[in-house]
Amino acid sequence: NPIQSVSAGLQPTSPGYRLQLLERSDLAPTLLLSLAALENQPAIKLPLLQTLQILSSSSDMNCALILNARGAETICLHMNEPDPSGQVLIHSTEILWNLLESGSKEVAAQLSRMECVIPLKEAFLHQLMNGSRHSDLQLRNDLLVITTLIAESPSCLLLDIVFSNFQEMKSYNPLVRNLKLAYKHEDLKMKKLLLNLLVLMSKDFAALQLYKEERVMLALLTLVKPPAASSERRSASLQWSSGQREELQLQALATLCTVAPLMLDDYMTCQGNTCLLLLLDWCVAQDAFFGQGHGSHNGGARGSTKAQMQHCIRVLRSVTSLGEDSVNQDFCDQGTINQFLGILMHMETSPDEEDVVTLEIKSDIQLILSALCEKDMHRKELFGSEGVEMAIHFLKKGCDRFYSGFGHNKLILSTVDCVSCIVGCYTTEDFFLAKEGACLLYCCICVDNPNSLSHILSWRDAGGQTAPRLLLHLWRDEEEELKVSRNRQGGIADPQRPILIHHQQEDSQLSFPSSMSSAAVLELSENLRLKIYSIFCKLGFQDLPGLSRKHYVTLSIVRRYLDFKVGEVWDEIRRELSLDGVRPITPDEEALSTICRIAADTARRVAAEQNSILEQQEKEDAGEEELLYTEIKSHWKQRELIAKSWDRYVSKTSNYEILKVLSCYIRRWKSSLLLQRIHLRNYAVVFCTGSKSTEGGIH
What are the extents of the domains in the chain? Predict the structure, then answer.
C-alpha cells in the first residue's frame, strides 16, 4: 500500500529507476525463453507476450537483450500457433515492430531465414483471406511491410507478385480466385506496398524471371493507362475512387521507372512506348497544371496531370537513356520528337509560375531529345528549325537564376546538352548560328558566382587533399598520357617545346599544306590542361593551400600555359612559311624571330625558377635530414648513458670489493653529515643566546 509505505517513512521509486532494474534483471530474455514451454498454454502465453510488448516498447536496452537471445526469430516461429483469442499474432507483430525500430539490421538478419519468412507469409495470407475488420487489415499491411523489409529470397515472394497483379491480370492461381477487396484505404495501402515490393526485389535476377512469368510489365502498363483508355474494360479496378486510381497510377509509374529498363523485351512486347505516349497525350489534353493533387507522388495539383506527366517523362527518360536502338527508333517512328518539342513550347506559354516539378519535366524532355538525336543524322533533321527555336528560347532565358535552387541549373545544362541535336546537321547548324546561338553559348560560359571561390579553396577530400593539389595531379597525369617532355622532377626538359605533346612533335616533322588548321589550336578543342588553366585563372596562383615544392614546379608551367601556347602558334607560322618557301621582309622576319626568342626565353626563365624551387627543396630536405641525424645521435648518446648507469648499478650489487669501498664511502659520508649537523646546532645556540659554548669549544 503506497499510503502505508509513505506513513512508514518509505518513498516510492521513480519509473526510470524501476526501468533500469528491469533492464539489469534480464527479465525480457527470460520471458522470451519461456515461450517454448507455453506452446499449449495460451492463457499464460498471451500475458507473457503482452509483457514482452511493453518491455520492448519502453527501452532499447530491452530490445537489445531480446535480440541477443534470438528474440525476433523466436517470436516469428511461435506467432502462428493455435490461439482462440486471435491476439497472439497481434502482439507478436507489435513486438517485431518494436525490435525493427530499435535495430532493423539485426532483426533482418534473424528473420531473413526461410524458416521465418514462411510463417510471416502464412500469417499475411491468413489475414488477407479472412480479415475483414479495420484492425485485421492494418495487421495484414504490417505483416507485409515486415516481409518487405527482411525478405531476401525472391522465390518465396511469388505470392506477393501474384497479389500485386491481382485485378489487372486474370490469374488462375487458387489463392486469388475467390479474393475480393473492399477498396478501403487499407486495401489501397496494401496495393501500394506490393508495388513497392516489386521495386525492392528487382535487384535480383531471379525476381526478374518471376516478373516475366507473372506478366508484371503488362499489369503495370494496365495501371498507368489514362481513365479514357481503361474505361473500355469493365474491370474491378473501376471500383477504386478517382483519387485512389490516381495514387495507384503514380505508384505504377514510379515502379516502371525502375523495372522497365531491366525488362526491355517485355516492355517492347507490351508496347510500353505507345502506352506511355498515350498517357502523355492525355496529360497534355487536360491542359491543367493547378490545384492540389492526390497521393505522395503528386507534385501538387488536384484535378491536374502534372504529377502523371512528371512520372511518365521519368520512365521515358530511364528507357531512352539506355541507348537501345530498337527502343529509340520505336519512339521516333511514333513522332516523339515533334511531340516533345510541342510539349516544351506549350509549357513555356502556360501562365503558371515555374516550380520544381515543371523544371524537372522540361529538363527531362530535353535530355530525352538529346539521347534520341545526338548520334542520328535523320533525327537531327527531324529536330530541325523547331528544335533550334526551342534551344534558342531556353538559352535566351539566360543564367540569372542558375543558383536559384529550383532546378534552373539543371535546365540550363540540359539545354546545352540538347545543342548536340543541332551540331552535325548543316541546315540546323546554320540556322542556330543565324539565331546567334554561339553567342548565347558564350554567355553561358560567363556564368560565375563570387562565393564559389572560398568553397573551392576550403574543399578537402577524405585524405585531406585540396582542390589546387588535385588539379595539379590531373595536370601531371594528362601530360604523362600526352607524353610531354619533362625531367625527373616534372620540370621543363626542352625550353623550345615546353608544353608540346608527342602527337604535335610527330606532326611537326611532316610536311602539311598551310591551308590546314593549326595543330596547336586544334589541340585546344578537347584539352584538359586548358580547363585546368582556366580554373587556376579564377583561383589565382598565390597562397594556394596544400601545395608542396614539387607542386609549385608544376604550377609554374600552368601559370605560363597561355604564353607557351602563343609561342607554339608563332613557331608553326614560321615553320609553315619556311615550308611554303615564303621569306618575310626584314622587319617582319626580325619581329617573328624576336617573338619566338621571347617564348624560348620565357621557358628558360620558368625552368630556372623550377630549379630554384627544387634547390630550395633540397636545402630543406638536407636540413631536415641533418636534424634527424642530430636526434638520432642524441638518442644513441642517451642510450649509452643509460647503459653506463646500469653497469654501475650492477657492479654495486654484484662485486664484493666495490661493495666494501662503497660501504666505506657511505660511512664517511654519514660521519661528515653528522659533524655538519653538530656544528650547525652549536652555531644556532650561539646565534640564539649571544654567548659562546665552552662545552663545545666553539669560537
Answer: 452-627, 656-699
